[in-house]
Amino acid sequence: MRLTNITRVTLPAGCVRHFAVTAGDVVKHGLPMSFDQRRHVGEGDRGGSWMALTLRLPTPVDERLLGQAWMVVLARHGTLRTVFSRDESGRLQLSEHLMQSGHWHTQPVQPGQPTRDAVRAVLDRHCRPFDAPSHRLVLIEPDADAHDRRPVLVIASDHSHVDMWSVLIMARDLLNALAALDQGAAPEPLVAQAASDQAPDFAEHTAALDSRGSTPPEILERWNEILAVEDGRLPAFPLDLGDVSHLVPEVVEVRDVLDTAQLATLAAQADAQGVRLLHMVLAEMTAVTLEMAGHPLRAVFPVHSRYEPQWHDAVGWFVTNSVIECTASDARSCAADVKRALQLGQHPVGPVFAPRGGMPHTPGMFAISWLDTRRLPVSLDAGLEMQYVSASMSVDGVMIWFVVSASGVHLRCRYPGTPQATRNVQAWLTALVERLQQRTSAPLDAEVRHCAS
Predict the structure, then answer these.
(1) Sheet strands side by side (includes 408-416)
(2) From start to end of 117-167, where are the E strands?
(3) How confident is the model at residue 143 (pLDDT cuts 50, 70, 90)?
(4) What percent of the chain has pLDDT over 90?
(5) Half-sphere exposure of 340 toward its Cβ, with a 13 Å CA cutoff?
(6) Which residues of 179-199 are buried (b: 16+ CB within 10 A; e: fewer)?
(7) CA distance 155 to 137
(8) Domains (ranges, CATH) in the chain?
(9) Pairing between strand 248-258 and 394-395?
(10) Tell me, what's the pLDDT at 442?
């Protein structure tokens, strides 16, 4: 499973078709919105606010059955039936709608045009904050002379309704429904069964967080300490990014960090120290930051909010924000730092930022995200050749995603395309990857003995 971007995703040349569902009558008004949903949608309707997953099906697919399978997915997950809008006074509102079965539409692909550009046009046009609905299922059928004729699916939604975990759930449910239909199941009973056996609704999760009561004083005080470090702003990338007073077209890099053998070595080193892989990587990030910038590692640290098992099978934006601060390049110290960050992330951030007028806009903001796909309760066959795809946009900060899978560790980094950012972010990434690879190139037995001593 790879992280990539719509400007570099690998897709076959062929016919591009997308399934358009219609949002019908409203069945629920005034659904609760999470802090991140309100912030994301409040920035306005726009393209490039989606996330997607691509996968290769093992055999050709009947598009009629595929559309029916998509309706099963929508019946199972409430957030996929919700639509954002503004009332007469301009206030955001969220409503659940009936989803009426849709139709397949062909997206024109011009001669010589990369397929990814045609897919991007579909997703930028339809997977927007205020679209009704703001998700799309795309089918790419390779050209007749293609070496690999297996079709490719793209499952996409505006970010307000999904996170990376969610699109994996959607893919699994789609494949399960498609398999049932292939085996002769009738679509109407299948949809009815999904509707009666729905996964927990993300709106229920939002309401549960809102009902928790006041934020503990020690959590508010900790946030005050964090924000005071940079005069009320969130952590920024530690090196010069140039002029980021306005949004700049992004640069996206995908780098392989560790292969399977190197991952096993680093995991063994972590075990010897009684820590996890994440803590080892943070220790090396801290070392690089101390050496290159002269101060500790500080970054926004997204953490999932699926605190209870009931949410593990649900679709929604189950992510909240914390901050990680690592002052020492020692894995055990970083483990304690992660524990503090996770404790901070267990409490809603809305009450923290409400007195400040919302989350502070921080040009140059630095964020680090970590996803170990081996630990997710949802897994799909590696033969599906899945790719997590981000939209292309203009940015003023630096975001790094680390993904761990059975094949190793890789990262995707997004940063402003200024000369300073290009030079400094690339240098920081190169130093980090080199340190991790050097650490895992030592003989395993000797390294483990050193860590255990």
Answers:
(1) 319-326, 297-304, 366-372, 398-405, 408-416, 248-258, 394-395
(2) 135-142, 152-158
(3) very high
(4) 87
(5) 16
(6) ebbeeebebeebbeebeeeeb
(7) 5
(8) 2-210 (3.30.559.10), 217-452 (3.30.559.30)
(9) antiparallel
(10) 61
